[in-house]
Structures are given as structure tokens and as C-alpha cells.
Design goal:
alpha+beta, seven-stranded antiparallel beta sheet, five-stranded mixed beta sheet, 15 helices, 16 strands, 17% strand, globular
Length: 484
């Protein structure tokens, strides 16, 4: 039986009034060092584990009986488990016992282990160490950790306490703290407009106070989330949303800043560059000018503003959709695969030039469709529901014809096509099909079959709403180029 019961939780973020910045900066610096140390230890142990011939055989041959157990035994043999890394973090803590608690150190070890696990499972090529320029966070493991919150005060260790700024008119925060028990505390360090500010995140047990009214369960909404758009279709509403429509495009400004930073670094460190401009091999201790530091802060602020505005935009769109319906179905998408470069080398048939191998990395960064799905799913969990994802391989919503059941593959450039003598827009029709999917059997984990009868019944209504939406887009929104 588990020691702790798994319960719902949510995060409340409040600013902390920290005047003793020197101590808190030292606190963060120590925990960053512990994280980096655990990261180095985990990488070395993983390398030794992967060099073991028995482990290599276990990874390649999936038919070996008791394979998972044997792999875990090998991990223990080389000290590559989360709790063995906790022991290493405890050793490091002895040098800083008067500053940090054991819970915070073990949480840093857990974060380091999870980062290295991405390399083991080929989800990442490398890991990144924390530097003094990063906005990092530290957290405890329970309400009894050295980092905790009691009666309006943030406690760091036994002797340091700081006030939490809760505005008198912030009824949401006051209700959340009053009606929910504390699980643990997280402390964030953020650089905002060039100044360092500290925020406390209280991870509270339960669900957050409700701010919005939710729609009925009986209305099913189909979503087709693309790289930069989200098509929403239900029996009484059809709309094509642009993800992050008002987010400023900062790519040109970032490129300009990066070039200026590179020139500054080369001017400050000429000994580290060859005559042809390439960087020399070997260890280096880079020197940065004050101008370089100012440009780095400016670039960081641009990224921070865009990320904050994009998340706010996604949350508003998620609330808007849930106000109409709380039964939401969408396709299962692998956005990580869309980031990768194409492996095939192809030519343009018109001019004979090589086609670019880049995929949708920049568009995904600018519109963050995965974040939108995550926020929508998170809000549904607060009311005891979840985002329903279809079996994409079996449904093929953008290819299927609900009239005859045939699936015809279409190029991405095809945005409109004909169904039963009617022109449909690809994304909206895909969302229409997704909203009419069902489970083929009780054992199905995802909706894996199209309900063609209900599609036929609702198709005329869909066409009326679709034509209205396309006219609205053509006249008023930024998506007119997308539907043409």
C-alpha cells in the first residue's frame, strides 16, 4: 500500500516580499550546484550502464523473460536509480547543512535523474546544466519540509522567514488557501524587465475555486489541433481559432540580437577563435562585456513576454471552449515528430532546387499547440473529466469520407475538398469527424471508429455553420490566407 494517497492538486502562485536577497541567492546557488553535481553523477553512471554487454542485450532483445526486472537490477548494480541518486544528493548536502534541507536536495536529484532518463529513452540528445543566468526553481516534498508556508509567511530553513504578498481584493487566492490543505511549496526565481523577483507556488490539495461556468456534458465538441490553428466543431458551434493570434513575432529581433552578441563575444575573446572564424578546441573561460550582458537580458525578456502572453491566450481559448461543452475529443498528435527535419532529400519539380528539410519547428514554437492541449486537459481534470484522444491511425479524420467510408490521402496543401457535392474546409471537417467518433468495443482505450450514421444526420447543420464561419474569417480575421 502506498505511503501517500494520490490526490488532485493545483498550484497557486503568489509573489514573495524578500528583502534578504543575498541569502536567497546563495540558497538558489547551492541547490543549482547540487542539481549540476547530480546531473554529472547520473550521466557517468548511465554511460557505464550502457557499456555493459548484458544491459545492451536486454535492451535489444524484448523477448527475454523478466526483462524489465533484469534491467532494473542492472540499474541498481551501477547506482543508476532515482533513490541511489538521492543518496548522492545527501552527501553533497553535508557541505551546506546550514542553508538547505534534505527534501530540497532530493528533489533536485529527482529532477536531474528525470533529465538523464530522457537520454536513456532517446527523447533528448543532451542535458543542460543550470547556470547563474537561468531562472530556476526549488521545491520541498511535503508541508513539513525546510521550505514551507505557514500563516502568511514563507519559511526557508529554521531562521529565515519572509512575507507573502496577497492582495486584499484577491478573493481567488484567499479562498484557495482557506479551503485547501497544503501539499508542498515551490520557490521560483524570475528575471522580469531586468530585475530578479521571487514567487511562491503553493501546491494545494483539491481543485481550484471555479472562475467560469462550464458547458453541458451532452454536447460533444470535436477538436482538430494543428500546428498553428484549432478547429472547434459541435452540433451548435463551428469555429476555426488561430493559436496565439496576438502574440508578437520576435524572430527578426532575436536574430539581430544573436548576431550582435556573437560579434561582442568574438571581440572580447579573440584568442578562442581561429583565423577562419571557427571556435578553437579545448576548455575556455569566456569573458563577456557589459554590452553583451545587456543584450542577453533583452533577449531573455523577449522570450519571457512571448511565453507569458502565449500561455494567457491559450488559457482564454480553453475557457471559451469549455464554456460551450465539457465533452471534448481531439486527435492524438505527435508534435515532437513534427519538429524533426525530414530525412528524405527532394527536389522542386518546377525549378529543380532542393526542398528544405526543415519541418514545423518554428511554427510549433510560435503557437505551442501541445501547451494548449495540456492546459485544456488540466482544466477538464479540475471537474473530474479529461481530454478524450482518438486512435489517429484508425480514424484518419482528415482523409475519410463519411458518405462512402473511403479514406483518401491528401497533401497538406489541400485545404478544401468535396464531400457529397459540398465543399468542406479540411480542418473543420476533420474536427467534425473527430466529434463523431465512438469506441468500437468495451476494451478500446481510445475512440477508434467513426459513427457514420450520426455524421449523416448532422452534416447539413455542420455545412450551415461552416459556411457562416468561412465568410466571417474571409472578412474579419487574420486566417483569411489559411482558408483560401
Amino acid at each position: 500500500m502506498p505511503r501517500y494517497e494520490r490526490t488532485d492538486s493545483f498550484t497557486l502562485t503568489i509573489e514573495a516580499d524578500i528583502k534578504d536577497r543575498a541569502y536567497v541567492e546563495k540558497y538558489f546557488r547551492v541547490l543549482d550546484q547540487i542539481y549540476n553535481g547530480c546531473l554529472d553523477v547520473a550521466l557517468k553512471r548511465l554511460h557505464k550502464l550502457q557499456m555493459d554487454p548484458e544491459y545492451q542485450k536486454l535492451v535489444k532483445d524484448k523477448t527475454i523473460k523478466g526483462r524489465s526486472k533484469k534491467i532494473h537490477e542492472k540499474q541498481i548494480e551501477y547506482g543508476y536509480t532515482e533513490y541511489q541518486l538521492h543518496e548522492k544528493a545527501a552527501e553533497m548536502k553535508h557541505h551546506f547543512s546550514d542553508i538547505v534541507g534534505i527534501d530540497e536536495c532530493q528533489k533536485q536529484a529527482t529532477k536531474a535523474f528525470r533529465a538523464v532518463e530522457k537520454i536513456r529513452f532517446h527523447q533528448a540528445d543532451s542535458v543542460r546544466h543550470h547556470s547563474r543566468y537561468d531562472d530556476t526553481s526549488v521545491e520541498g516534498k511535503s508541508k513539513n519540509s525546510a521550505l514551507n508556508y505557514r500563516k502568511g509567511l514563507l519559511y526557508i530553513g529554521k531562521t529565515h522567514r519572509y512575507e507573502i504578498i496577497i492582495k486584499p481584493d484577491d478573493a481567488y487566492a484567499q479562498e484557495a488557501i482557506r479551503n485547501n490543505r497544503l501539499k508542498y511549496v515551490r520557490l521560483l526565481r524570475k528575471t522580469i524587465r531586468g530585475k530578479t523577483r521571487y514567487f511562491v507556488q503553493l501546491v494545494l490539495r483539491g481543485t481550484p475555486p471555479r472562475k467560469h461556468e462550464y458547458g453541458p456534458d451532452s454536447v460533444v465538441t470535436g477538436l482538430d489541433v494543428g500546428v498553428s490553428t484549432a478547429a472547434e466543431v459541435s452540433i451548435n458551434h463551428v469555429e476555426l481559432h488561430e493559436l496565439g493570434p496576438d502574440i508578437p513575432v520576435i524572430d527578426a529581433e532575436i536574430r539581430r540580437i544573436n548576431r550582435a552578441m556573437d560579434r561582442s563575444r568574438r571581440a572580447s575573446n579573440p584568442e578562442y577563435f581561429n583565423e577562419d572564424g571557427t571556435i578553437r578546441k579545448g576548455r575556455k573561460k569566456w569573458h563577456y562585456s557589459n554590452r553583451y550582458a545587456r543584450m542577453r537580458k533583452k533577449r531573455k525578456e523577449l522570450y519571457r513576454k512571448r511565453a507569458l502572453q502565449l500561455k494567457t491566450s491559450h488559457e482564454m481559448l480553453a475557457n471559451e471552449i469549455l464554456e460551450r461543452s465539457t465533452t471534448v475529443i481531439c486527435e492524438t498528435m505527435n508534435y515532437r515528430a513534427l519538429q524533426k527535419r525530414s530525412k528524405k532529400t527532394t527536389h522542386n519539380s518546377r525549378n529543380g532546387r532542393f526542398n528544405r528539410k526543415s519541418r514545423f519547428g518554428k511554427a510549433l514554437a510560435n503557437h505551442a499547440p501541445s501547451m494548449f492541449e495540456q492546459l485544456l486537459d488540466q482544466k477538464l481534470h479540475y471537474i473530474g473529466k479529461e481530454l478524450i484522444r482518438t486512435d489517429t491511425a484508425k480514424i484518419r479524420a482528415s482523409q475519410i469520407n463519411h458518405v462512402n467510408g473511403e479514406a483518401i490521402k491528401k497533401n497538406l496543401s489541400v485545404r478544401k475538398f468535396e464531400i457529397d457535392g459540398n465543399i468542406v474546409q479540411r480542418d473543420l471537417y476533420s474536427a467534425f469527424i473527430t466529434g463523431h467518433t465512438v469506441y468500437s468495443s468495451e476494451d478500446s482505450l481510445k475512440p477508434d471508429m467513426v459513427d457514420f450514421e450520426s455524421c449523416a444526420n448532422d452534416f447539413e447543420t455542420f455545412l450551415i455553420f461552416q459556411d457562416r464561419e468561412l465568410k466571417s474569417i474571409a472578412n474579419t480575421t487574420n486566417l483569411s490566407w489559411y482558408i483560401s
